[in-house]
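Hey team,

Filing this mostly as a record. A colleague (T.K.) asked me to run one chain through the structure pipeline before their review meeting, and I want the input and output archived in the tracker in case anyone asks later how it was produced. No errors, nothing strange. Just documentation.

Input sequence:
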Amino acid sequence: MLIDLHSHTTASDGQLTPSELVNRAENRQVNVLAITDHDTIDGLAEAQRTIDDNGLKLTLIKGIEVTTNWLNHEIHVVGVNIDPTNVQLSNLITLQKEKREIRAIEMGRRLAKANIEGVYEGAKALAGEGAITRAHFARYLVEQGVAPTFQKVFDKYLSRGNTGYVPHNWVDIDEAIVAIQQAGGQAILAHPNHYKLSNKWMRRLFTDFKALGGDAMEVAMGQQSPQVRLQLAMWSEEYGLLASQGSDFHFVGRWRDLGKALHLPEIAKPIWADWPIYKEFKEKQLT
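Output structure:
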């Protein structure tokens, strides 16, 4: 059973529409896909309609990726199996949208002050109705020839200490965990090895996430060495967190795709072990 619990659409900073994403997942033989756009659930309805209208075998898990603050670090929390109509979650999404817009305007102002004009407007156009992110700024700057790659844009303009960087003001991590769980979901610490934390700080993050009620952590991603995957699995066991996996898919690339290289080490306890869809799958295997 191929499970991918982390993906993005044009509702945030992905480059495929929700319809395109679920069709690609079907073609990639993904069985279970979570759409987890940044601070928005706007892509979920279209994705489910496409699945239903076209008779796709894919099971959609309703999700979100909430950008949070933890001790002045930007940490992402994925929520899966959420109820998109939940009031507390809706309120958090509204608040995050306001914070994103304020930050984006200020980023545009700072870049304009450095004689790089029209970046906010360009990024906003790329975002369309979706949640605006730094990735939209990076994409626009690459398209305008300001820098050759996304990474160069972040290194020179959008990272801490550079021209277009604006400190984040996201909701605290505990608020995200509570909102996800109030919406009936499970809270997953996203891509822990992406935060460039020392082992000491990583362990502190795991300890706090568990203490605040977090359910799981991402252990397996497509771009990852076997050693990193095993270490994350060992930490998930040590800190009593269930294990999740996801491609963090944004666009079709050489090294990252839906469902690519996703599997958990044997010592990890999957977050989906008790999900009805997985139990049904295992029962069919035994018959």
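Quick notes for T.K.: Residues 3-83+172-286 form a domain with the TIM Barrel fold (CATH 3.20.20.140). The chain has a mean pLDDT of 95.
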